[in-house]
Amino acid sequence: MSLAALQQNLNNSFAITRPQWLPICQRSDLVTNSGVCALWGDTSVYSTETLKTVTKTVDQRSVALFFLPEQEQQLYAVDNWDPIAQAGVIARGIIAEMEGELTIASPLYKHHFRLSDGVCMEDSSIRLATYPLAFNGDMVYIGSNKIQ
Amino acid sequence: MTENAKNQKLIVIGNGMVGHHFLEQLASHQQATNFDITIFCEESRPAYDRVHLSEYFTGRTAVDLTLGDIEQYRQWGFETRLNDKIVEIDRENKTVCTASGISHSYDQLVLATGSYPFVPPIPGHQHERCFVYRTLEDLDSIRSVAGTAKSGVVVGGGLLGLEAANALKALGLEAHVVEFAPGLMTAQLDDGGSALLRNKIEALGVKVHTSTATEQIEEVDGHLRMQFKGGSELCTDMIVFSAGIRPQDELAKSAGLQTGERGGIVIDSGCRTSDSNIFAIGECALYEQRIFGLVAPGYSMARTAVAQLTGEEGTFTGADMSTKLKLLGVQVGSIGDAHGRSAGASAITFVDEQSGVYKRMITDSEGQKLLGAVMVGDTDDYDTLLQYHLNDIQLPEHPEQLILPTTDGTAPTLGAAALPTSATVCSCHNVSKGQIVDVVAGGCHSLAEVKDATKASTGCGGCAALLKNIVDEELAVLGMEVNNHLCVHFPFSRQELFHIIQVEEIKTFAELLDKHGSGHGCESCKPTAASIFASLWNEHILEPTHVGLQDTNDTFMANMQKNGSYSVVPRIPGGEITPEKLIVIGEVAKRYDLYTKITGGQRIDLFGARLEQLPEIWRELIDAGFETGHAYGKSLRTVKSCVGNTWCRFGVQDSISMTLQVENRYKGLRSPHKIKMAVSGCTRECAEAQSKDVGIIATEKGWNLFVCGNGGMRPRHADLFATDLDDESLIRYIDRFLMFYVRTADKLQRTSVWLENLDGGLDYLRDVIIDDKLGICTELEAQMERVVDTYQCEWKTAINDPEKLKRFRQFVNSDQTDEKIIFVKERGQLRPATTEEIVETAEPA
Questions:
Q1: Contacts of A34 in chain B (CB under 8 A)
Q2: Which CATH architecture has domain B2-116+247-309?
Q3: CATH code for A3-144?
Q4: ipTM, 2 dp
Q5: Which residues does chain A have within 8 Å of residue B489's beta carbon, measured at their own beta carbons?
Q6: pTM for the model
Q7: Closest CA of chain B from A119, distance in Å
């Protein structure tokens, strides 16, 4: 699927929020059945040549990217910041199925966050932000919900 | 009396096990504050555990055996006077007088004066190498003489006599038992059981002389010659008298209290003596013409006296004298009317001469009720039979099945449900089935919690299996799932899963889940499977198929700290380190600004490393010759040691060399939980080996091996497993022990808890590891050999593999560092900033 087609697809399914798609890392940066952390900001630009973000903004955030090749939905992105532990460690957790749902268990205090919507299984008032994530060739793209 | 009980003066004479139990019971009673309590003790030390006295010879110290604690007594408001013997009771004025002539008044008096060993008045019995087996001082004397002796004789073939014989044997002496009666342990065993016991004991090298009366003891050429009735004689180096006990009743007798013809202070069912203000409890008391020389009835009397003093109901009406024990390694059990002397009694006997088992049950004439039983060589049925006896439970249609071996190897046990709630489960602490049911219903849902709450099974431990049955049964009744399944994804215990993975040679989690599990796995089963794969196949934990299974600390081969940074622990085997290497650690710490701390395991922990710094730090450490310390893994952590005989004037073995050998052998072994070890070069035990999973303590002849100790949250004193081992046997036993633990423990179960839950406990463990009862020792050793042979330093492999280093980037798409990790300085080093400090330093929005 071309990027344009992907964009079109997602534009359709996210008609209201109109995500903007930006490259975030390479496919080979991901770790199978586990997570890695990437830096991402609205105005940061990821160079597909240097494979780095080239501008830094104050609104940068770390996101945890998970690659589960056996699942129907293979890619997940959630905030890397664990609000319970007050540390950026979500990407280093372990993928755990809990009550039939795929979750990420935070490494510090073992809270589970649902990958699909970021809700904490132990305390539903806590929720991590989630983002759409997709492959495009060898690249991985993240979708922003913000308006251009 | 009791309504005016405020500030009654209570004097307790004697502080043995029963006296101590009395104080414990009274202290926990709400009316305890109504009494001013003073304890007089003739001896210089407070109560200690005489039941386990012999363990003084196998590694336990006087401190370990101590029960009474003066400081504790003080906290309870009791005054303790050691070395202060009461020599007179003035009942008229209600005072007692000490040897130093000071009198103290009382309102109520408790005599817990115990007993003394009976020494038959044989001419020569006062010789300096004649001993009794009663106090720690006696054991000290025996030990010091045994050092130069070749043989020793125990006079008395009862329970305590055989224990003394065992001690002499353990001290390296040729041991003899001289018994006046025609058999051994005739109080507890019938002729058949007694005869088999004798055979077994003789096979162990103890010489038994029954129907033998000693007439004279004299010293001839430095030896002691015992002359027996009938003219025979025996030469030996020391003699231990163990011919029964006599109640310590002199004080009571001179005060005019009623005593028995053959001694003992007469008490009624309220434990009151002939003077209603004076109680007598324990081995000094005589109830219905009987002295009760076991600890459980003594405790029962103590509870009765407390009840009487506090105005509650409680009587002592005799006690069950059933016992189960292991004498010289032979299992012996005796229940109720062991001799079948009751009217109309009939017996069923099972004898297996090949494996040396004798069992006999005594029933009433109709075969409906169990009156008594004798077991020698196999006491597996003891618990079940005892419950039939104590609770008058109707015997099954074919009662012989209770003692006959079954073809499938499992004896029919009495279901816990069949017991009435009044049934006593733990006779040491008088815990009924009803009390156990109550605490389970009240929220204690594990065996450990129930033990904690009721004290059941914390005395002799004989009721452990029954207790477990009751707890399981009650949990099932409450609808709680009693299973040890790993998690919802695998309907197996860790042990079962280990077996499956081993037999089917499964190498990946995907295959395991596909064949035996369901769903996608979780943080419980994934690391467990990863640990089993590592124990069995020992592939690198960061192989692509394994990396997603590891806990975060294993994933990054470092210990995550609260702010997401890591600590690094290089291996420093035995705590031995060259100045050059020490400098390297210092330089690395300085370069990366790491908080540096010495650990309890004689290593150095470097805190505050950022994820992306870990590979660089390790490259430097590895270049200097360090290896990973596995501080992050459920695996061997450290082997602590002292300097041993290389430097220490007390050392008897080279503890450092042994430490290096074991640490280098077992490093990298992945296990159900972390494993700690220590090696001490002498009995001074500077390495604190008795608080470790595996503790090694040097002896003159080799090494003593201790197992299943623990420090931390639930301290547990390690058990002495084997003594005086040579280097090879020591390593062999540790190989087997560790692999058996790795195979059979539950997930995250330390060796201490594992042993406590192991059916058959330490004896069973010895059967498996030393006697190879399960026939698996060769396999266990081979398995360990494989792990040892395939050892790799995980960090060394990782820093040479770009694929494995991929994850050691804070951000996969940026070289920036995690700005949320903020450190501040304290005492010259970094530490994580507190939340408040972070808010203060944050830039305004």
A1: 547-548, 555, 807
A2: 3-Layer(bba) Sandwich (3.50)
A3: 2.102.10.10
A4: 0.82
A5: 97
A6: 0.58
A7: 17
